[in-house]
Amino acid sequence: MTAVRTTAKVIVGFVALGVLAVMAVLVPIPGPTQLRTWAEGLGGVGVVAFFAAYAVFTAAPIPRTVFNLAAGLLFGEFVGVSVALASTVLSGLLGFLLARSLGRDAVLRQLHRKPVRLVNDRLAHGGALAVASLRLIPVIPFAPLSYLCGVSSLPLRPYLVGTAVGSFPGTVAVVVLGDALTGTTPPSLIVCYVTFALLGALGVLRATRSTEQKTVAVVEDSHSERSGPPGG
Fold first, then answer.
1. 228: phi > 0 → left, psi -120 to 50 → alpha, else beta; which?
2. Whole-angstrom distance, CA of residue 99 vs CA of residue 34
3. Buried/exposed 70-104: b ≥16 CB within 10 Å, e otherwise
4. Exposed / middle / buried, residue 35 (Cβ in 10 Å: 0-12, 13-18, 19+)
5. Residue 92 and residue 72: Cα distance in Å, rounded?
6. Could you give the CA distance from residue 212 to residue 98 in angstroms, rounded to a whole number?
7. Average model confidence (pLDDT) for the chain?
């Protein structure tokens, strides 16, 4: 029975691949320029719809990169960056408020544990700079960090400022890349934007490196305290 099911799944998989291959050949796929023209035809309605979809979907653990590329491709560099950054802040706000309303009590019950208290204090006292430094690290997913900040003691205003500042360099770089797919952005302008984004990211990371090193040291001290002195 197991062999039959496995064979059936393989057959279904090949059939699905075949259907997709046929669709790729028969169904016309619009190019970047056609997509830009289509988005321009939608006017403000298209911008608002994209803004709402970006904010809602990325509040869940859905990567922002696809939306940033789409923003540049559909709306160009200026409107694309504006919409993407505004949607990012709104998405961060939604995730923050959701986590604060649902999970804050559970964290409060764990504040007697030094590692938990340390992370909470790091965010609460680090403020916007702490959030910005974390937003600049590509391997940290956007939505989970929003949830983490929401359950901490971090106030809302510095969280939003840090989210906007920390997300700005990466957002600009990816949106400009999306705009470049249409072939309308001068290469020199792309280089300038990417350089600006990298310099901004390096600046904030350098400013917070010493603080992060202190955080690691405190965590190690907390583990040594919990282990206690060896028995005599």
1. left
2. 40
3. bbbbbbbbebbbebbbebbbbbbbbbbebbbeeee
4. middle
5. 20
6. 27
7. 74
**Dihedral (Cα; 112, 116, 118, 124), 10-degree rounding:** -100
What's the pLDDT at 4? 58
What is the number of residues in the chain?
232
Domains of the chain, residue spans: 31-224
Residues 170-212 have pLDDT tens digits of 888 888 888 877 766 556 566 666 666 666 666 656 655 655 5
Q: Which tokens go with 29? A: 């796929």
Residue 232 structure tokens:
């005599």
Written as six digits, the tokens of 107 are 């964290």
* Encoded tokens for 231: 């028995």
pLDDT one-digit tens code per residue, 111-134: 556 655 666 677 777 788 888 888
- Please state which of the ranges 25-34, 121-130, 188-197, 222-231 shows the lowest mean pLDDT: 222-231
pLDDT number for residue 214: 53
CB contact set of 144 (below 8 Å; sequence gap of 6+): 61
Question: How many Cα atoms within 13 Å fall on the side-chain side of residue 165?
Answer: 20
> Residue with structure tokens 């403000």?
44
Q: What is the mean pLDDT of residues 30-54?
A: 81
C-alpha to C-alpha distance for 46 and 38, rounded to whole angstroms: 9
Which pair of tokens denotes residue 26? 């028969």
Question: What is the C-alpha R_g of the chain?
Answer: 23
